[in-house]
Amino acid sequence: MEFKIITHELEGVSSNYIVLNPKTALKNDLMPGTLLKTSDGKYGFRLITSSVIEQGLGAISDENLKLNSIKEGQILNFIPAGVEGVTRIIRRKMQKRTLTDTEIDTFIQSLNSGLLTNSHLASFGTAVEINGMQEKEIVSVAKSILNYSKKMEFSGKQVVDKHSIGGIAGNRITPIIVPIIASIDLKIPKVSTRAITSPAGTVDALEVVTNPNLDFDEAVEIVNKTNGCMVNGATVGLGDTADKFLSSVKQIKVDPREMMIASILAKKKAAGADFVIIDLPTGKGSKLESRDDARRLAYDFSAIGNKIDLKVECIISPGDKPIGTMIGPSLEMTEVLNTLEGNAADLLLKRKALSIAGLILENKGFADRGQGERIAEDILDSGKAYSKFKEIVEAQGGDSIISSKTIPKAPYNYAITADRDDIVYSLDSYNIGMMARAAGAPNDKMAGIVLHVDRGDAIKKGDKILEIHSHSEGKIDEAIAMMKTEAPIILEKSVLEHITGVQD
Fold first, then answer.
1. Which residues participate in catalysis according to the annotation?
2. Assuming Cys at both sites, which of 191, 216, 423, 474 could form a disulfide with 233, CB separation 3.0 to 4.6 Å?
3. Which pTM value belongs to this model?
């Protein structure tokens, strides 16, 4: 069945569809809802009929046209998809069976082609979450994702990467590390994401100063020009097959670690890296609560990476409090620029960025073991990293004349003060993040939280504890209300528990 492709938008309909005239569908014995794929298996669509489309034409959304690199007017040959085999694969995983390479590739190919429904993805994701995957299955998933992904290729220089599993304990170090590494004879194509549950992902913060929403070719060009880039994975399109899966299953609060591991490593390999360091923030309020969990994940990352010819090293970092004192896109970018300018207000942020950059330098032979952090600091202190950051920002469409002083600030802010003399016992990363989101972050780029205390600080009544920033006074009120139910800052307790015993 050959149809000439045009663009057409249908309100309230998902992007993954093809619209045929009812007579065209009838002529080809096709019923609405039928899954169709191109004869080469690259693209897949769900059939919808509408008389507004002329006979012989196949209409798809403009979004899908661009996503699949299909040209308007192109003639495509379609066949029924027949995804019954995928159902059998899902049932085998429900039964705790080990999937073969062929079965995994069939599933990933069907996913990549857009042939699977949310029900397929939810069922498979739940089965993996409950029953897990063997190492060889995870390797197979990673290889299959790679097989259906674009791949960046660079000549002449080694390619490295870094990744954090996220949360406000892992934010904002990327824009410090990338220019340090790019200042020497290494390439670092950093593909990042927006915030999912945190107040600011790397992409959200970068949008304050430049355009991270570049396509594949633009990203490659910038890396070749500057040695580095900081771009949005959703627009670059590396390993986005896995993104389709993970974004669907997150709707039902399912996040199978095996698919996450395969996805992350496949993307790093697709970006051309032969070495990646992964940051695992660990502790209360972070994604990994225990050190043992972090060690197991680190081992899995390393083992799977080795099987796809990618060297992986992991660090376990403190995740029980924010890194830095500013939370929210503009605020975090201000703190990044302060660090690059040599005016780091938060020593922990600076040291963490330098330690990761140092490990990369050591691995690639630019520093002796144990000397990488010092060399990274020399690059930072010399101003080379700041200059490289501005170069990358300009190459991506931003203004190179930027500093911590030029970042816009929210029109409203409110200070929370201590109501008594006390000592700060801990900072709750999760609740601080939720408070920043209540203030409007990340959609409101200038919204967020500025911390004025740290764990162990002695405070006096009336001392400023934190500030809430927002474009909306109402959002500030929402954030203030959270102080009463979800304490972001916990003061020292002289009594941990009061037990009165049994009362008659």
1. 255
2. 191
3. 0.82
